[in-house]
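input
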Amino acid sequence: MSKYLLPSIPEGAHPLGEFEVEPGGMGRFLLGQFTLKNQPKGFALRVTPKKHDPKAIVPQITRLAAEYNKYELVLYTVNYGDRAVSIEVFAA
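output
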């Protein structure tokens, strides 16, 4: 698990967006562009429906190089389960 993924949604976190991942599929969500001076505190996820197998949903945040000292963070989420899930993304 990425150092940017938080175990729960902290108080004061704001929603960034939502996306759906089909069974056996992968979703991609751009978290934003950052610099070494302006690093994110972290991101939290809310997966619905709540009756999903937590081990079936595998999130990973990847850092992509950009120009100069800027970089982008992208959330990739794989759904190994047998039902579609909706993923809400929150920034701390």
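quick obs: Residues 49 and 85 are 6 Å apart (CA to CA).
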